[in-house]
Amino acid sequence: MAALTPGRPGEWPRWGVMQCARSGQSVCGDAFWVGETRSGLLAALASGLGSDESAAQVARQAIDVVVQFRDAVLLDILQHCHMALVSTRGALMGLLRIDPMQATVQYAGVGTVECRVLGAGKFAPFSAYGIIGHRLPTIRMFETAYRAGDAYVLYSDGITHEFETAALVSLAHAEPQVVAETIGRDYGTLDDDVTVLVARYGSEP
User: Fold this and answer.
1) CA distance 182 to 106
2) Predicted local confidence at residue 158, as pLDDT
3) Which of 76, 86, 155, 200 lies in disulfide reach of 159, CB 3.0 to 4.6 Å?
């Protein structure tokens, strides 16, 4: 169950990513992973505190833990990440699981990583206030019905919230890579790392 490469049009599942470092930095402090598990597709986004190589190392460490425990419940994965990062500066994280067999979509997160849906479905979960590795709050796992073809967007706090109303309708049927690049280009800020991760599983209804 290895990581997936971004799919070409017509291939399923499909995903795309746009990532850039904070202005003046050469390294983005975010890391991500998309892969298939026993329960469908798992997408993870981790944002290390700060915007430098040290932040990137923490983010990659968190993603390594996600991959190791990718078949676990989302809340348990975040708990494993928290324990692994206790000696680091910490990270903010979001996890999304699309399970077509159970017809469910789940999200759980900590910090300023956010998740939104592109499509006919309505799904606006929120991440708990805290820091993985330092202050783990009570985390809520959000669940909604799976709709084939809906695209889900994970994004770090380098993205403004303006796109939630301005871009969702116009991008609903675009390829995931186009969605990621458009949101990152039009709604990214220069004073923070930017990562936009878009995943779609299953053909459109």
Assistant:
1) 25
2) 85
3) 155
Phi/psi at 63 (nearest 5 deg)? -65, -35
Q: Which residues lie closer than 8 Å to 146 by C-beta, 6 or more apart?
A: 98, 99, 100, 102, 103, 104, 105, 201, 202
Cβ(196)–Cβ(184) under 8 Å? Answer: yes
Residue 150: count of CB within 10 angstroms of its CB: 23
CA distance 184 to 38: 31
* Residues lower than pLDDT 70 in the chain: 1-13, 120-121, 163-168, 202-205
Query: Alpha-carbon Rg of the chain, whole angstroms?
Result: 15
Which value, to the nearest 10 degrees, does the dihedral of the CA atoms of residues 47, 48, 51, 53 take?
-120
- Please report how many Cα atoms fall inside a 13 Å half-sphere around the Cα of residue 11, on the Cβ side: 10
Identify the pLDDT of residue 119: 72
pLDDT at site 169: 73
| Of residues 79, 105, 92, the one with CA closest to residue 31 | 92
Q: Would you state the pLDDT for residue 1?
A: 41
Q: What is the pTM of this model?
A: 0.90
